[in-house]
Amino acid sequence: MTIDIMAIIPEIVLVCFGFLVLMLSVFIGKPFDKAAAPLLVAGLIASAAAILIFNYSNTDSFFNMSFIVDGYSIFFRLFTIITAIIIVALASYYINGNMVMKRNTGEFYFLIIMITTGTMLMSAAGDLIMLFISLELVSMPTYILAGYAKTNEKSNEASLKYFILGVLASAILVYGFSLIYGATGSINLSGISEAINSGNMLSGNYLIITGIIMALIGFGFKIALAPFHFWAPDTYEGAPTIITTLITTIAKLAAFAGLIRFLYVGVSGFGNSLWIVLFIVVLSLLSMILGNLMALPQKNFKRLMAYSSVAHGGYIMIALASATAGAQWAVFIYLMAYILMNLGAFAVAMLVERGRDSEEIAAFAGLGQSNPFISICMIIFLVSMVGLPPFAGFLGKLFVFKAGIENNFTWLVIIAVLTSVISLYYYANVIRHMYFSKYEGDKSSAKVKTPAVYLIVIGFCALATILMVIIPFVFVDISQGAVVAGF
Amino acid sequence: MGFNILTLITFIPIAGAIVLAVYPKRVEKSAKYIALTFSLIVLGLAAYLWMIFDPSVGGMQFVEKYQWISNVNIYYHLGVDGISMPMVFLTTLLTVLGVLVSWNIDNKPKAFFALLLLLEVGMLGVFLSLDFILFYVFWELVLLPMYFLIGIWGSANRLYAAIKFFIYTLLGSVLMLVGILMIYFNSGLQTFNMLELANAGMGTNLQNWIFFLLFMGFAIKVPMFPFHTWLPDAHTEAPTAGSVILAGVLLKMGSYGFIRISMPILPEATKAWAPAIAVLAVIGIIYGALACLIQKDLKRLIAFSSVSHMGFVMLGIASLTPTAVNGAVLQMFNHGCITGMLFLIVGMVYDRTHTREIAAMGGFANKIPLLSGILAFTAFASLGLPGLSGFWGEFLVLFGTYNQGTLFSKVMVYLAVIGIVLGAAYLLWMLQRVIFGNYNNNLGELKRITWIEMVTLAPLIIIIIFVGVYPTPLIDMINNSVVLILGM
């Protein structure tokens, strides 16, 4: 039992820091606000250190196989922590400028830490209960945070919509889990896999197939895959931008971490089931087409990113439909690229929003003239999202498409590349505003303020986006080390 | 090997772009000297490469190969042969000229020259890479700088032209990417090495599919007849340096792809598709020439003439005989020089008159005699006057195609000859309207040609005359590699 505890020390450390910040903020109040973010970053780093110290040497499953430490969970947990550090750093400046957001600094950060913890637990989850609990641990604070700008009507709408649809999805998910439990008699993922394979259930047992597809719907909702994406545009738009960033990075990471573990370990032979593969293909197809087409007419940057994230989810699902180990690390590469460029793009968007008081794409006008550095970085992020080399998005798309073609989904890949050409139009539209049109607002706000922490984050993301293509072998090695296989 | 000359050639422009990026904005005016220095260094290296290049070897020389992503067999693999050598030289030369012709640019010169150098990296990389993924990276690298060159420094309708160029060419290249990945898996070799894949031996049916995907990428770039609509817009709206490089080098990337990739890797599909390509090529030749006849805009006229002239390149490629393919490669080089030069001259004329309307021009022979003379010279080279370089490419293409001896190929040649006649017609008529006739006094006094413009045009004049009089060394060099690629 003592050894079991050792495995979750990173999470324990993190939660302790979360509570510490919450308590200090309650008891000390305003004077503590400035120290909250640095303290949390310290906590996140301590948690990462704990992973390196306690987990690398001790890969096994713990707590009656509900918590698994392996390459997969180590990769996702470290990656989550890095993302969380960036988000906390961005938040420290973002909430400063907003009276409503500023009111309870400790509470705000505490919720972010809960989401981070949930994501970390999710990637290590070894049974259905753990999967469900950690998914809820991610979701609940996200609902709250989406409505955190409580005087803003849109923020309220975002939160309510996300909450109602999210709970519905959770219900579907847990119902699916119950069917799986009923059919296999096990809640443990490897136990489920054993029962399915020994009973040859994927060919003809519709109880289990229904259960799995319901679980996929639940995850599909959290990832925002079409046709379960309807919450995304409104929530992305209404939520405070820092929370939108969080939803599109950490929350998405959580859902993918759970989904991949669930499919590859729990339903290890899912590639042989026509129904499941077909369902994944349909999700992928609809997400790519709807996501990219609906993004075309958007005028609000956050709505645009919502649809773009739907489309990116669709691309990733191509690899998952292939159901091979090679497809799995392609997904990891894609996720790394996706999160880097999203963090960067949202960081720029937050600066523009703050400086020019508008979330419209038109607010980017003339940015290339007034803020050359962040504009060039923004080009890198946007072009990377299209999937053009030499940027990270290209590497992700390359490997995902490679996995698709390897497994005879050439037609799906062709649709993917065609839709990515469509995506060029709306990403280029942002570039067009930045470089080819003049800023119409008043002169004083033309040059957007760029605090050092944002410049560091944006520069880091841009550099990483380029490095992923120049030294891809590093990232390929990392992602191949994280591949998880069924038993 | 001593030092990696190909890597140096490819990446020195990036160093230039980085220097320009950190160059202080106060002294932005002097950015052109930096750009000129770097592009001259690259040109010097390319010239040096040509000197030490052994033209009698058909295969790849100065090969550099390093592992890039080991798990999936992606290599950093460069090499140069008789086909890419002239293209590399052309690229480096036209970049220098592009810098010179933009000498007086005052709108964000720093960014302009940095983009020009980035563009050069992409083009050089395409001609030098021997690994598919590397090739694709460089292929796409060209798009973004060109998008900005057209979008920021272009003329009135630039936004439309820029995005049309971007989307259209991206459409082709992503389909090409699918084709590349299909080759990777279906060749059974699991490699992206272009040279090894020549021995792949895939089934004919599969080859046809893959050929179609690659065809979309290359044909849009060339551009072949039904996919050419982005070209007139992009060429017309782009700044002079952009048009020169678009017409001079970018279009060649497409035909180069056919020769380097489709021919050796998909030989059976190339044979099967050749007649269709020939027909499209001939339609392009005649359609392009006819379109030239009705153009009111001088720059647009030259843009359409590119469609016509690239038709000859594609006709040569489609004939699949060494003579005609030699002609195609030679025509690629010559068209780069000649059309590049036409765009340079149009740019110079525009700087003086601030109009591109042919109707508003006339009588230039009296006002700017030397520039008019050079324009006439280039037009003659373009219509294929024997003794100037334009002649040899078209001649070899037609000769090689005719020599195939089939009725089909003969008909193609007859039709292409009509294109040559039309070519003479539109070029001469253009000269008549621009150089001769009465001078339109609204244009005011025209400045005589400056020394910097002379320096810009002189190298191309020399090359056009030299290749026109003595093309043998160039043809020999090309021939050795073409024979190897055709497997003869």
What's the topology here?
The complex is a heterodimer of chains A (487) and B (488).
Chain A (H helix, E strand, L loop, with lengths): L1 H6 L1 H20 L4 H23 L5 E2 L4 E2 L2 H24 L4 H4 L2 H20 L3 H19 L6 H32 L4 H10 L7 H18 L7 H8 L2 H26 L7 H22 L5 H22 L2 H32 L10 H4 L1 H15 L5 H15 L3 H27 L15 H19 L1 H10 L6
Antiparallel strand pairs in A: 1-2
Chain B lengths: L4 H18 L8 H22 L8 E9 L4 E7 L3 H18 L7 H20 L3 H10 L1 H11 L4 H29 L7 H4 L6 H18 L8 H8 L2 H26 L1 H27 L4 H22 L2 H32 L10 H4 L1 H14 L6 H15 L3 H28 L16 H19 L2 H15 L2
Helix pairs in contact in B: 1-2, 1-4, 2-3, 2-4, 3-4, 3-11, 3-14, 3-19, 4-5, 4-6, 4-11, 5-7, 6-7, 7-9, 7-10, 9-11, 9-12, 10-11, 10-13, 11-13, 11-14, 12-13, 12-18, 13-14, 13-17, 13-18, 14-16, 14-17, 14-19, 14-20, 16-18, 17-18, 17-19
Structural write-up:
The complex is a heterodimer of chains A (487) and B (488). Chain A contains 21 helices and two strands. Chain A is mostly helical and 487 residues long. Chain A has a domain at 273-487. In chain A, strands 1-2 form a two-stranded antiparallel sheet. The mean pLDDT of chain A is 90. With 488 residues, chain B is mostly helical. Chain B has one domain (5-486). In chain B, 74% of the residues lie in helices and 3% in strands. Chain B is built from 20 helices and two strands. Chain B has a two-stranded antiparallel sheet with strand order 1-2. The model of chain B has no long low-confidence stretch (mean pLDDT 89). At the A-B interface, helix 17, helix 18, helix 19 and helix 21 of A face strand 1, helix 5, helix 6 and helix 7 of B.
> How many structural domains of chain B?
1
The class by helix and strand makeup of chain A works out as mainly alpha
Report the sheet-strand fraction of chain B: under 5%
Range of strand content of chain A:
under 5%
Total count of strands of chain B: 2
Number of helices of chain B: 20
- End-to-end C-alpha gap of chain B: 30 Å
